[in-house]
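anyone seen this seq b4? input:
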Amino acid sequence: MNGATLAGVLAAARRQLADAGIADAAQDARVLVAGILKLSSTAILTDGSRVLDEAAQSAVAVAIARRAAREPVHRILGHRAFSRLDLALSPETLEPRPDTEVLVDTLVPYAQKMVAGTGSCRILDLGTGTGAICLALLDLVSGATGVGADLSAGALETARRNADINGVADRFEAVESDWFAAVTGVFDIIVSNPPYIVRSVVGTLDDEVRLFDPILALDGGEDGLDAYRAIAAGAGDHLRESGLVAYEIGYDQKDAVTAIMREKGFTRIEAVMDLGGNDRALVFAKTPAP
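predicted toks r here
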């Protein structure tokens, strides 16, 4: 392909992905070619006559082949935008989804109010993965500090890297822990996007999820609620009296998670839907004593 132009390489990439059955072949081709060649979205459209050398063509070809094999676009590129952050991804971490930004946006006013009232807000992110939720909150709420806990050492390495990349490393600590097992102290906000897929469903998920997201971050047990039970059981011992617990949930789990939290002495104070109209984020406070 000596002398291949950007437009020609992009067209070939689009055809290859379409032939492989990729639903958004044109968009994925544009994002991958732009990311691999470090071009702006404008340059992709206006610099079609640019001639690509063999190294550039080869890099694009490798990326397109990976996408044709169902590897997600942002895993191929190695990073993804989330809130105002740019997050590195790794095999040990779930790829952050835009729906999770709903949980972050829901918590920002609470965290800001805590900082305004007491001068601080200490956040615990359980199952932190890339650090997405905690780091986004630290980025958006000056004065907040956070602990990201995860069972995976590889995930924690990625979270630390992301804290550094995004300029909040001085307010973030990573702890290897099975939920609360190695967590010390109390927090103003405990938040989690835990594994919540019903175990029998995991094997039926799209290839992009099933083959590339870590099972540890997907499998929520026989009914998808194991993690919520574990967090509910320990949250009271690690939460300030006026603190909050917040979750991302599956579309059909609002009532079940609310019941689990109620049994442990919590009241739901907010439920938020995502852009698709599905229940996505729940916020709980300790139930006042009668």
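The CA atoms of residues 101 and 233 lie 26 Å apart. The first strand starts at residue 79 and ends at 82. kinda curious what u guys think
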